[in-house]
Amino acid sequence: MTAILAVTEQRDGALRKVSREAVWAARQLADQLGATVDALVLGAPGVDVAAADLGAAGADRVLVAADAAFARYAPDGYAATVAERAKAGGYAAVIVSATATGKDLAPRIAARLDVPLASDVTALGAEGGKVTASRPVYAGKAIQRVVFEAPQGVVSLRPNTYVVGSAGKAGAVESVAAASVPARVTVREVKASEQGALDVAEAEVVISGGRGLKGPEHFHLVEELAKAFGNAAVGASRAVVDAGWRPHAEQVGQTGKTVSPTLYVALGISGAIQHLAGMRTAKVIVAINKDKDAPIFKAADYGIVGDLFEVLPKLTEEVRKAKAG
Amino acid sequence: MKIAVCIKRVPDTETRIRIAADGVSADEAGVKFILNPYDEFAVEEALQRKEKAGAGEVVVIALGPDAAQETMRTALAMGADRGVLLRADAIPADVLAVAKALAAELKDGGYDLVLFGKIAADDCAQAVGPMTAELLGLPCVTAVSKLELDGGKGVAHREIEGGVEVVEFALPAVLTADKGLNTPRYPALKGIMAAKKKPVEVKPVTFAAPRLRVAALEMPPARKEGRIVGEGPDAVPELVRLLREEAKVL
Q1: Do A240 and A132 have their domain in common?
Q2: Domains and CATH numbers, chain B
Q3: CATH number of the domain residue A82 falls in
């Protein structure tokens, strides 16, 4: 029986949202291939297995590799454990989330297994029994469709691309061995960022500011709108990151992050091609800019031409009201 | 300190991408190519480490067509000592094949540090660095935005969602450079002149049959035409109504 392995991700013992997306994507692929789905949880003993959640997302089995060294991301131990499991289980595909951790982990797994990798995939499929994947290249300026010409492959899946439904599978929990390999690198500490836990690459709503804000001291207007939405992360254009107004972690675009939120709001961003490449897969795009000819309006679903310093406080107030009502 | 920097020639990030007649690759006609932006951080870091150590060598290694030599000259003009071009007319989409060719070149090089850029602006795979490290059996930290080296040990910061991981490792190691690691220097005229005389060794590489086949390269689906809701703060209530009732995102 063919099977697909979905590697989940936890932080501080709690499964992250992307885990269910990876399992759901695995389920969709498995249904096309007539395969089963195993979800793999790596964590310290006592990690929240969330078997009911993973079963609902489509896992037939939830495999748990518990090791005291797995509390934090342990690149060598994680990669060896997934690779050993993938070899033993003969999975047609190993699906990892394309998060900061997953982007580090997936290539290591592929190299250890000596199998091909497709990174940052936005859609998976099957064609004549082979796994296919679509992935944005040139930071989203084009889409590459690839076919795995191998019995096994590794995929990293872009967060926010699969909307998780309900599959109602068993999610039967089983223990599997954690690989005992020496750790060549050790995560000594995780420092929480001052901007808060929500990352532009994963947030459902991204509120980005550009040069139109005129200075870093005005970015609180962007932050206040993000706060009004509640589930929003603050993003920034390359111009303002290069100017040192905002940290690189917030940069959206070809030399920053590529994002696919439900709603993207571009404030005072002209819309350079490298920025558009990074956000064009957002479901809904709103632009506010004082220049009616700014290229951002060509990408936007809704635009307001106007002075940010007049429009933004009003928008924050209206969003707050809408959220409250 | 002997440092290798693996670099890539990529289309300028301000370039529009057109699909070539073969339907699986980008049309290179009229496209300006540059040193991959993240590789600039890797080159700069190598140069600073060598300068700090007071001795050593910085070797830039590129895999690509003959034209990648021009890209390599940028790194040599910044101050790298010599170059190695692993010549291949086409770079496989199966990036593990690329990592294998680089690992074979690096294996007996005696490097203390192997640096990559975090991600290539063309294939966006973000994989060749850690794959190469695995093949070489070396410690690897990806997306490094801060680096401290002391003797044979290192501490690197890498950004994760909502935080920073502080990672310890021992040399020799493979690191991939993120923005923020340093500020890359501009090649000075003197460097540009000197770069012309620096040695570049060209070695042809061949690849096994690819196990990841590109079936198509397509333009992303066009977004439907948007509209200007209005001008100034008076347009805000209508925008909020549309977000709520039409787009259903509020």
Answers
A1: no
A2: 2-204 (3.40.50.620)
A3: 3.40.50.620
Residue A180 lies in a domain: no
Q: Cβ of B220 and A248 within 8 Å?
A: no
Residues A279 and A139 in one domain: no
- What ipTM does this complex have? 0.95
| Tally of CB atoms within 10 A around B197 | 7
Whether B165 sits inside 8 A of A300 (CB atoms) is no
* Radius of gyration in angstroms for the set of CA atoms belonging to chain A, rounded to a whole number: 21
Residue A115 and residue A158 in one domain: yes
- Last residue within a domain, chosen from A130, A158, A175: A175
Residues A220 and A157 in one domain: no
A17-42 confidence digits (pLDDT tens)? 999 999 999 999 999 999 999 999 99
- For chain A, 325 residues long, the average pLDDT of each consecutive 10-residue run is 95 93 98 97 92 96 97 97 97 98 98 98 96 95 97 96 94 96 96 78 94 97 95 94 93 90 97 92 96 95 97 97 89
Structurally, chain A folds into a number of domains equal to 2
- Assigned domain for A184 exists: no
CA angle A141, A145, A150 (to 5 degrees): 145
For residues B61 and A257, which has the higher predicted lDDT (pLDDT)?
B61
B249 and chain A: CB distance < 8 Å anywhere?
Answer: yes
Considering only residues 256 to 275 of chain A, which have any Cβ-Cβ distance to chain B shorter than 8 Å? Answer: 256, 258, 262-263, 272-274
Do residue A232 and residue A163 come from a single domain? Answer: no
- Token pair of A91, please? 């999975």
Search chain B and give the residue with CA nearest A189: B166
What pLDDT score was predicted for residue B225?
82
Q: Where are the beta strands (DSSP E) in chain A?
A: 3-7, 10-11, 14-15, 36-43, 61-66, 93-97, 117-121, 123-127, 130-137, 142-148, 153-157, 172-175, 185-192, 205-209, 232-236, 263-267, 284-289, 302-305
Give the mutation candidate from B9, B114, B165 for the A interface (greatest A CB count, under 10 A).
B165
What confidence tens digit (pLDDT) does each residue in B104-136 have?
A: 999 999 999 999 999 999 999 999 999 999 999
Domain of residue A218, residue span = 205-324
Nearest CA in chain B to A142: B219
pLDDT tier, B54 (very low <50, low <70, confident <90, very high otherwise): very high
Q: Hey, which residues 161-190 in chain B have their CB within 8 Å of chain A?
A: 161-170, 173, 178-180
